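Protocol step 4 of 6: structure prediction from sequence.
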Amino acid sequence: MISRLLVAFCALLSFGLAQAQELREQPTPFSAWVDFQTTGQAGAPKQGYPIWLESVQRTAVPSNTNAQVKTTFRIRLRRLGGLNGHLQVRLFFDDLPGASPTVSGWSETGVNYYTSKPLGSGVGLPTSESLVLPAEALDYIDVSVPGDGASVRGAFLATLKSAETLHALDFAAPAELADAFANLPATTSTSGDTYLYGRVKAAIEGEAVTLTPGVNASMTWEIEIDALPLLSVISFEILDVDPVHPPEWVVNSTPMGPSAIHLPDIADPGFQGIVRSTEPLPRFQYNGWIRGQQVIPSSMLKIGVNKLVLRLDGKSNAVAVRAVELQLKHHWQHLDYKLAP
């Protein structure tokens, strides 16, 4: 049933596009998706790679005398002068406790030019992390993980080009890496409250908190306010969100509706489909941290203690939330306004 629906949909889409304009595939000679789950499997279709990526190999060996298995995916590169001075490696993996992957870069003579810290924080959910590797002298990149390698889904590799960026001196410098799919950079952690141009920003929750359907489906914070703001916004980062069923904020017992989520380009490999036998079409979750927001009308708040609850949608899978901040906009001497009838 699912296959027929998908085939019919693709045929209809192709017909519609043919009537309007020719569908042109975007070339990506300097980027590649590496599927680790099919690497080394008998009968798996051969993956096509750009000229600078020679091959991908998979090995599993005991990592110590107790015969604990460690799996390594070796990505062999071709040196093409200054073409690949720096590479982005965005690794997609299940963030399981005790199974943190690492990424390292080597020359054929055994010189180690790069080794990452163990990736992930053990939240138990699918995630992704991006690294920038100095690749001009590399012959191969190793992705190593404890176990049989099933927890590592794949990697997106892209050749990086440097560009000059101007930024305001009084504010934080931009992120080291501009995401290929227009994802926003991670929120910079702050401690305490900060004030700027009438805005008060308060950090509510910095560390990752996991919400699980039916077990721990909501999280509650109590915030004390000494003056009613003109406008309020809650911002947060969320991992593995279902774009169709994002979580909902409840402010002082009033539901605010689904949160607004900033989605990257849906070509991003972070969108992973979930197929259930009881549903005609797949759902999606995003294997990475993305930004969410909720606007709160001033009428929803009160002077004193306010109760903020974030709860899962009834159709959502487990998610993790971090970098929760509350912004309160107050009057200041240069507040711009106009009179309206």
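Step 5 (inspection) to follow. Confidence is low (pLDDT under 50) at residues 1-9.
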